[in-house]
Design a protein that fits this description.
The structure is a single chain. The chain is an all-alpha fold and 148 residues long. It is built from seven helices and no strands. Helix 1 runs parallel beside helix 4.
Length: 148
């Protein structure tokens, strides 16, 4: 997070700590009771000056660009010697992984992330194999039926 420029660092932190989708983070506005520290439509993470991802001055975009955030995150990962991640992977997946690793239930995580079924959420369950009973593992057997 420290390697990311503002407001990209804030967008990443919100996604990683709250599990929000990139579009939800980019559209997040300050509450009416809070004084708005940014003049751009009350957005928590206002767009960066420039047009179409260029650094030159120009009209402001409506929202902080998801591709621009991903570009900064990938560069920060590369600089740190880590595999490159997209904004979605770095934020929302980090939240879900931390939830599971800290003992949170898959069903509650499904509710938080807004997944339609727990099957979608179970992609994070590999982080805690003890969550599966032996019967579950047998149902997941994908042997190819190799004949000797």
């Amino acid at each position: 997070m420290k390697a990311l420029p503002a407001p990209t660092n804030v967008a990443f932190a919100i996604s990683a700590l709250a599990g929000l989708r990139p579009g939800d983070v980019r559209a997040l506005k300050w509450g009416k009771r809070r004084r708005n520290p940014t003049p751009h439509n009350g957005l928590v993470c206002p767009p960066i000056l420039g047009m179409l991802g260029k650094a030159a001055l120009g009209p402001r975009r409506r929202f902080l660009g998801e591709h621009r955030i991903t570009k900064f995150i990938k560069q920060a990962c590369k600089d740190a010697g880590l595999p490159e991640l997209t904004f979605y992977e770095a934020g929302r997946h980090t939240f879900a992984s931390q939830w599971v690793l800290n003992g949170g239930s898959i069903e509650k995580l499904r509710e938080i992330l807004g997944h339609s079924t727990v099957l979608v959420t179970e992609r994070y369950a590999h982080l805690k194999p003890e969550l599966f009973q032996e019967a579950d593992l047998l149902r997941a057997d994908v042997s190819l039926g190799v004949v000797s």
